[in-house]
Amino acid sequence: MSVLHITKETFEKEVLQSDKPVLLDFWASWCGPCRMLGPILDEIAEEREDIKVCKVNVDDEPELAAKYQIVSIPTVFVIKDGEITAQSLGAKPKPQILELL
């Protein structure tokens, strides 16, 4: 499955109501560490059918960024059954991202 790009209109359905755990990345195109993390998340999305990998561009969706108090990017959350179960700040190697799940 490919990475889903989330907007405030799709957030509820794709993230909070997901029947699979969601790896959710808050990012921006100008952010160097975000660009480093992007290919890792793409890889995870292709390899894992048991989760959803989603991205929120903080420049395009400032309301979502504010709601989740994003002050540093990339910020990655794991959301299960509508609840945040893990989070990570900054670019991390793939094994550390997978540990969040």
Task: Please outline the helices and strands.
Blueprint: E1 4-5, H1 8-16, E2 22-27, H2 32-47, E3 52-57, H3 62-67, E4 75-80, E5 83-89, H4 94-100
The number of helical elements comes to 4
Number of strands: 5
Tell me the count of domains.
1
CATH architecture descriptor: 3-Layer(aba) Sandwich
Label the structural class: alpha/beta
* Strand and helix order: EHEHEHEEH
Helical content stands at: 25-40%
- Mean pLDDT across the residues is 96
Described by its quaternary structure, the protein is: single chain
The CATH class designation is Alpha Beta
**In percent terms, what proportion of residues is strand?**
25-35%
How far apart the termini lie comes to 17 Å
Instruction: Characterize the biggest β-sheet.
Output: 5 strands, mixed
Large-scale geometry: globular
What features would you describe in this structure?
The protein contains four helices and five strands; from the N terminus they run E-H-E-H-E-H-E-E-H. The radius of gyration is 12 Å and the shape is globular. The mean pLDDT is 96. A hairpin with a 2-residue loop joins strand 4 and strand 5. It has a five-stranded mixed sheet with strand order 1-3-2-4-5, with helices on both faces. The two termini are 17 Å apart. It is of the alpha/beta class and 101 residues long.
Short description:
With 101 residues, the chain is an alpha/beta fold. It has a single domain, classed as Glutaredoxin (3-Layer(aba) Sandwich), CATH 3.40.30.10. Helix content is 38%, strand content 27%.
